[in-house]
Amino acid sequence: MKRFLPDEAATTAFGKALLDAMPADLAGWTLLLQGDLGAGKSTLARAIIKAAGHTGPVPSPTYTLVEPYKLSRGNIYHVDLYRVSSADELRYLGWNELDDGCRIVEWPDRAPGLIEQADLSITLSYEGEGRLVDIEGLSKRGNQLKIQ
Ligand SMILES: Nc1ncnc2c1ncn2[C@@H]1O[C@H](COP(=O)(O)OP(=O)(O)OP(=O)(O)O)[C@@H](O)[C@H]1O
Ligand SMILES: [Mg+2]
Predict the structure, then answer these.
(1) What's the CA-to-centroid distance between 25 and ligand 2, angstroms?
(2) Which of 34, 54, 74, 140 satisfies CB 3.0 to 4.6 Å to 123 for a cystine?
(3) How far apart are CA 139 and CA 31, in angstroms?
(4) For 71-104, what is each residue's pLDDT tens digit?
(5) Distance (Å, rounded) from C-alpha 146 to C-alpha 137?
(6) Which H or E element spans position 121?
């Protein structure tokens, strides 16, 4: 499914619609956010985290690799793998322990093997002044999501 997002507000609204389509318990979900530098991956992740009830800042996990959020619908882990270069490093950062929450992953291509574990692949690309978002289901439940 593809959708045009004319501005940042549209990206934010899409993040909320995506979260609304997901089950109340977010545990075990993995969302892959793909796209070039500045395509809007962090903007979308921030929108999802805020829509889930987080009120403070949403810092980039570029250096910490993982930023955890404890929220009423469960934990959300915002992960940025830009600085990761192998599946070993992914294990080292504690990836396997993050399965009690929803993992939102920027730069998933940095760690081979993530696609097999994920529910949705969301690719953002530049389209004029806005962005195009392409949502692809990677699991049964991912394919069944109906995003408004
Ligand atoms: N739909 C949209 N149309 C136009 N601009 C947008 C849209 N969504 C987000 N933006 C803008 O694009 C920029 C995206 O920055 P963001 O940090 O989210 O990108 P990113 O993909 O996470 O980059 P990086 O790879 O560096 O982490 C921001 O300036 C944001 O305001
Ligand atoms: Mg980013």
Answers:
(1) 25
(2) 34
(3) 11
(4) 999 999 999 999 999 989 999 989 999 999 999 9
(5) 11
(6) strand 120-127
Residue partners of 97: CB distance under 8 A and separation at least 6: none
End-to-end CA distance of the chain: 12
The strands making up 66-71's β-sheet, listed across from edge to edge, are: 2-5, 130-137, 120-127, 30-34, 101-106, 74-80, 66-71
C-alpha closest to that of 105 among 23, 17, 19, 29:
29
Is 92 in contact with 119 (CB distance < 8 Å)?
Answer: no
Contact criterion met (CB below 8 Å) for 129 and 41:
no
- Read off the amino acid at residue 50: K
- Which tens digit of pLDDT belongs to each residue from 5-25? 999 999 999 999 999 999 999
Q: CA angle at residue 79 from 91 to 97, to 5 degrees?
A: 40
Ligand 1 pocket: which residues have CB below 6 Å? 5, 7-8, 10-11, 35, 37-43, 106, 130-131
